[in-house]
Amino acid sequence: MPEGANAILVGRRRREQPAGPRAASGARGSRPLAALAVVFTLAQLALVRPVLGLGWDEIVYVSQVTSHHPAAFFSAPRSRGVSLLVAPVASWSSSVPLLRVYLALLSGIALYLALRCWRGLFPIRVLVVGGALFASLWVTLFYGPQAMPNYWVAIGALISVGCFLRARAGRSSPRVLWGIAAGAALMAWMRPTDAVYVAVPLLVLALVRRHARLLFVLMAGLAAGAVPWVIEAYAGFGGLGERLAEASRIQGGLGWQIAVDDQLRSLGGRALCRPCTGPMPTPLVTLWWFALPVLAGLGLAVAVRAGRAGRTLVPLACAATAALPYLFMIGYAAPRFLQPAYALLAIPVADALWYLVRTPRGTWRPVAAAVVALCLAGHLAAQLAVVHGAVSRNIDSRRDWDRTADALHRIGVRPPCLLTGHEAIPVGYYTGCSSGATSGNNENITVAGILRTADRLPVAHLAPAGGTPPRYARSWPVHRISGLDVRVAPGP
């Protein structure tokens, strides 16, 4: 019996001894990722200032859960994920700076957790550089603290693909499987169609390789995230097919449409490029976009030579399917649409950059390191310049909405009230009014409904100065406010 007890103790000590150094090594390996997340959070707060007012799409999402403003019309393509994400703050506070700080902190934590899912697949130095490449893009800095879905689809993609690769490598612990499901659910929670495009290579690989458990976990995560959107499709749009058809109509009809040049034009800091006209940004701003596929290809070649092609090929395939609809299936562009693709490309690209720095021998190694560092510095400078311009423009436009709201209050349009016409949704939110449209993508009321509302509440129609008003508002008194013709219905 003593020998048996000693054997048990010796075996336990053997199992426990490596845990200390391994845990310490794991903690040390996580510190660079944590430092990156902290810098990313602080950069958001410094560059995209918390005083930046809510944008049009943010207003739609936030107004669904706040008690301080009427809910804006929620169109078919949108999903409730962002509304639920901001609910812990927006449900009880109307403070925009508080919401910005909350989202910046949350996005920094999410980036750290997403990169941790890739530990063991790539060296920590590659993960840090890859995370920094993604985090330093102007579109990531600009949208990180905003109530928008695309950054969170990117985070979900990093989590699900990273955990999927870890499971394929034989590390299918319950935590890894939960990671696959959570990442897929987060993507589908934010944008169900984007989640499907990202997950297609994973689903195909799990099916071909007969990874039944991975296939089940991935599909369960996608289904769990998409359930609210599907339920709402039947409750408010007449069915899933009808909602998808309406979403396609609002987006201009999905089909073969080349939007590559539109995406290039949007890289100069345009939040939405619809219609996408005007000159291209300077080459300094767009050069990184052309370098991405080249460096991604080099990263794949490096991985093939090192015998680890799978862990590079899978994220590249998911990035390609994520980008496909936004490059070749819609007739307009917004830079945020490609955030999931950028996030998945960042790690193979970082692997390629480390290869370029470390491969040359002798006197060429410092030269290669200097060239790569110089290129990255120029890229960072361009991204910071673009984000500065984007923030400045958006601060001005959102202050215009605020000034228009103040002027509306002065002429008697105060909550409860209804606004229709040009930019009724954002101006209505800033004014505290409901918004209505009798046609277009946000149609939610009839002319008869507007006139009935005018019998009991202040109602105003907004149009660009000199524009032709609808028939029902032509006889209403006109006020010129901030370049708008505001026609106010006669009082009840």
Automatic annotation (TrEMBL):
TM segment ranges: 33-52, 98-115, 122-143, 149-167, 214-231, 287-306, 313-334, 340-357, 369-391
Highest taxon of the lineage: Bacteria
Keyword entries, A-Z: Membrane, Transmembrane, Transmembrane helix
Keyword Membrane: yes
Keyword Membrane: yes
Protein name according to UniProt: Integral membrane protein
Lineage of the organism: Bacteria, Bacillati, Actinomycetota, Actinomycetes, Kitasatosporales
